[in-house]
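pinging the channel bc i need a second pair of eyes. not urgent but kinda urgent?? the chain im working w is below, pasted from the shared doc
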Amino acid sequence: MEPAEHDTSAAGEDQRQHIVDSRMEKQVVCRSTRIKKKSVRRLEFEESHNAEEMALVSEL
């Protein structure tokens, strides 16, 4: 009986590890997506800011 119980707990442990791995992978993907979006927003802001500066300079 003991080996069967051990096999069941090992399978349960494997399943838990898979869930943990899935969560960690999801966190990594979310983090990288968040960083990409932040970078894009920053670049778009800098681009629009530079365009405004160029417009002001050309008015002078």
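so The CA atoms of residues 30 and 36 lie 10 Å apart. and Residues 24-60 form one domain. — does that match what u expected or am i reading it wrong
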